[in-house]
Amino acid sequence: MRRREFIALLSGAAAWPSAARAQQSDRIRRIGMLSNMSSGDSQGREEAAAFAEALKVHGWISGGNLQIEYRWGAGDGERYRTYAAQLVAQAPDVLLAVGGTAVGALQRVTRDIPIVFVATSDPVNRGLVASLARPGGNTTGFTIFEYSICAKWLELLKEIAPRIMRAAVIRDPSEFSGVAEFAAIQAIAPSLSVDLSPIDPRDSDAMERAVRDFARQSNSGLIVTTSGASIKDRDRIIALAAQQRLPAVYASDYFATAGGLMSYGPDDIDQYRRAADYVDRIFKGEKPAELPVQAPTKFELAINLKTAKTLGIAVPQTLRARADKLIE
Fold first, then answer.
1. What is the pTM of this model?
2. Element holding 67 (H helix, E strand)
3. What is the CATH number of the domain that holds 323?
């Protein structure tokens, strides 16, 4: 081989990796998102927008080098199954699952496509990952909280309304977290001299009838745990609590923003920003099995002062001082 031809061959070979990298970076990446909210839910849209914005920081531009396909489960088991199959059939590079039910639905369809989850409780005992430090398989993500946090809801309810002697707990026993969250609240109830009544509604109308019946008793309050059903019906639940003059505490601040008395839980939007970081790392070659499941880094207390005034509740100054958000 002549010297000139040999040098040309070496130069071409050296260029192959960079050309491959350019081709890889030019490829449009695809994400399938399965949410536990409805398509018209403003909170769900805000969370999806925060996820897209965080990806933009990493150079992934929706409508440019990134395509995101959205599906909205809205707490409906059949929708989860249908939409999970649809998203997997499109062979995305990564799947984003909002809530444990969405994770389970996607895992039943694929064990190959990487899944990053948010707003999911106890993923180890639910069988979604092998461990928090080493998830294994194709799934990792961000937990919503440990169940011990749920006891804080009753403590806060008693603090803002000291006369409360009984509390109804709206939960969904068909969801893994429903029973565990109630158990955590139940464990602390005797020390606060509060009797608990679980409300396990079959549907929205049944939930409303149960709350109305419960509210006939004096010195009563309400706790709304995390579930797709409570998210879907949150406007109805908030209105019902106001009508029945029930002090109520919720798991997410968008309940308080929408008119609920108070909430205590993780920063919902922050989880989507952190999930975008994991998606970027997976795009760049890291494996979900090696990315540890992470817990929330910040919890927020929100109090709706307007709702408190309507209910005739004087919010203690000590509680005001601890609040991250005071909604006028």
1. 0.86
2. strand 66-72
3. 3.40.50.2300
Minimal CA–CA distance to 85: which of 109, 120, 117, 103?
Answer: 109
Same-domain status, 272 and 215: no
Domain span at 312? 147-266+300-327
Distances (CA, A) of 246 to 222, 240, 242, 313: 6, 8, 6, 11
Q: Which secondary structure element, helix H or strand E, spans residue 88, and what is its range?
A: helix 77-89
Contact between residue 6 and residue 42 where contact means Cβ atoms under 8 Å apart: no
CA distance 278 to 268: 16
Q: Which residues fall within 8 angstroms of residue 225, CB to CB, at 6 or more apart?
A: 150, 153, 169, 170, 171, 172, 177, 178, 181, 182, 251
> Is the torsion defined by CA of 250, 196, 119, 77 positive or negative?
negative
Residue 4 maps to a domain: no
> Which residues fall within 8 angstroms of residue 51, CB to CB, at 6 or more apart?
33, 68, 96, 272, 273, 275, 276
* Each residue's pLDDT tens digit, 54-87: 999 999 999 999 999 999 998 888 999 999 999 9
Domain membership flag for residue 258: yes
What share of the chain in percent tops pLDDT 90?
A: 80
> Do both 156 and 138 map to the same domain?
no
Lookup result for tokens 């005034």: 309
